[in-house]
Amino acid sequence: MPLSGRRSRLALAIVAGSALLFAALWGRHAIVHAQSAAQNQLTVYSPQTSYSVPLLDANGQPYAGLVELLEPLGSVDARADGKKYKLHFTPPGGRPLELQFTEGKNKGKVRGNGYKLPANFVVQNGRGYVPLSVTSALIAKLLATDTELHAAPRRLFIGNVQVRYTLELHKDNPSRLLLGFSSPVNPSIATEPGRVRLTFRREPIVSSVGENVPYSDPLITGVSFSEHDGLAELDVTGTAPMMANFADGGRTIIVTGAPAPAPVAQAAPAPLPPAPANTQNPTPQPRQPATPRFLVLIDPAHGGSDIGAAITPSLPEKDVVLALARRVQHELANRGIAASLLRNSDVAITLDQRATSANAARPALYIALHAANTGQGVHVFTALLPAANLSPQGFLPWDTAQAAYLELSGSVAGSVAAELESRKLPNTRLLAPLRPMNNIAAPAIAVEIAPPAGTVDEIANAAYQDQVAQSIAAGIAAVRAKLPEVRP
Length: 488
Ligand SMILES: [Zn+2]
Hints:
CATH class of the largest domain: Alpha Beta
CATH topology of the largest domain: Aminopeptidase
Structural class: alpha+beta
CATH architecture of the largest domain: 3-Layer(aba) Sandwich
Strand content: 25-35%
Strand order of the largest sheet: 9-10-3-2-1-12-11
Number of helices: 7
Oligomer: single chain
CATH superfamily of the largest domain: Zn-dependent exopeptidases
Bound molecules: zinc ion
Radius of gyration: 28 Å
Mean pLDDT: 82
Number of strands: 29
Number of domains: 3
C-alpha cells in the first residue's frame, strides 16, 4: 500500500518510538531475571508467615542476624554497647524475654540462664549474629515450640507448618499425574521438553513419599524432590513436553502431556471424494473435516518465575495480564465470540512454546497482553516485519510467519484503537518486532496496558480494565467479518 509523504514520516516516528519501547521492555525483563538469582539466605516458615533472613559468612560458617530472625515472630528491641549485645524479644501476648551475648565470645544468657553458642557471637555494624546451626534451638527455647532446621538447604520450620504431598498417577492417554498438597500452594512452574519443575519459595513443602519416585509409564517417568537455597523443588520428568495446571483451589497440581505443536506449514484440506450413489446400504462415511469456527486465542504474557514488569512491588505484570485476559474473554463471550486463554494459571511458558501452542490452536485471531508501569493508556502493537507477498496457504518461514497476515492484523489493531478512542482512553498504535507475535500464523496483535493517569496501581482498577476489555472485544467484533474462520 503506497504511503503518502506525511504518513511515511509518521510511520518512521512510530517505528523509532517502538524501538525505544521495545528496548525498555527488554531492559525491565533483564532486571527481573538478575534479581531472581539465588542468594545466600535462610527461609523461615512459621504458622503466621514465611520470610527470609540474609546470611553472613563468619568464622568459617553461616550466621543469621538475630533481629531479622526474630522480628517477624514478635517484637524486638536490640542494643549493642561496645562488645555487649542485649536483645529483648516479646512473643505475641507474652512477656519480654532477654538474650545477652558478647562479641567474640560463645557464652551468653537466654532467659536468665547460661547459653553456649557452637561458635563465637558476631557483631557487625551494630547488629548481632548467631551461627545458623543454633537458630532452631534458640527459637524453640524462646517460643516453647518444636522447630526443625534443614541446615544445608537453608530452611527452618517453626511449629507443625510442614506441607506434605501425595502423588497419584493415572494411566490415561496421555497419562496424568496428580500432586495433592495438604495446604494450597502457589509454586512457580517452569517447563522444558520432558520436564516440569515446580519451585516452592514460600511453602514449607517437605517430602513424605521419598526423594525419588520412578514410574514405568509411556509419558511420566518420575518425580524427584529436592531442597536448596531456601526453597523446595518438585521435578516431574517425562518422555514428551508436559504442562501443569492448578485445581482444587491450589491443593492439586495436574501434570499432563502438552498438546503437540502443529507444523507451521499448512496444507490445504484434501478435496472430499464424491458421495456414494447408493444410499440404501449405509457405508462408512468419509470423515468430515471439522466445521470452520471463529476462535480468539488470548495470550497473557509472562507467568511463573517470569513475573514480567513489577507494576508495583506487590503487583507483577503476570497477574495484571491474566486478570485482563479473563475480562477480555468475558467481553468476547458477551458478543458471541469464543475465546480461550493460552495460560489460565501462574505458569511459565517459553516464547517458542507460546508460538507452537498458538499455531496448533489455529485461532482466527491471536492477541497477546502485556502491562507496563510507565507511559499512559493503552498501546496496540502489530508486528514490525517487511510486508511480504506470502500466501497463508503456502509454507511460512518460522521467524516471519506473521508477515502474511500483517494487513489483517493491522485492521484489528486499528479497530481496537478506534474503540479505545471512542471510550476516551489514551491509546497509541505501534509496530514492534515482538516475539512470539512474529511467529504467529494468524492475524495477531499485542495490547500493552499502562495506568490510565495518576497512580500506577490504578492499572488494576476493575472499571479501567473493563473499559479496556470492552474496547478490545468491540474492536474485534467490528472486524470479525474480515477475519476468516479456521478449521481446527
Ligand atoms: Zn510484558
